[in-house]
């Protein structure tokens, strides 16, 4: 996909100075400026959630003394949180990083459905 530039716009339409400034500002904010701070915030949280929840599940499964009703409940919480981490967080990071949704029609519908289901699942498990 080719980035839309002002010379391209000027060739196709007669634009006022104010309109050009608005379009340039929109292009700069949404397509040109890098939003590395968003990724810098999402990556550590994603990795911490992934590692911590995996460790909780692994410890309860491996250690015989950790198998209690309370710890099984914690494993349920960790599984729900892991599903939210894997399914919801990457898409949230993409949405925060880019102003357009480029993943397609079906991934949009599927991910929205799964986000709703896993959020509901996590809420019900926490009750």
From TrEMBL:
It is found in: Membrane. Belongs to the G-protein coupled receptor 1 family. One of its GO terms (molecular function) is G protein-coupled receptor activity. This is G-protein coupled receptors family 1 profile domain-containing protein. PANTHER family: LEUCOKININ RECEPTOR-RELATED (PTHR45695), OPSIN RH2 (PTHR45695:SF15). The chain crosses the membrane at residues 39-61, 73-94. Residues 52-127 form the G-protein coupled receptors family 1 profile domain. Coiled coil: none annotated. Gene3D superfamilies: Rhodopsin 7-helix transmembrane proteins. The keyword Ribosomal protein does not apply. The keyword Protein biosynthesis does not apply. Keywords: G-protein coupled receptor, Membrane, Receptor, Transducer, Transmembrane, Transmembrane helix. It comes from the Eukaryota. It is a multi-pass membrane protein. SUPFAM superfamilies: Family A G protein-coupled receptor-like. GO terms for cellular component: membrane. Its main location: membrane.
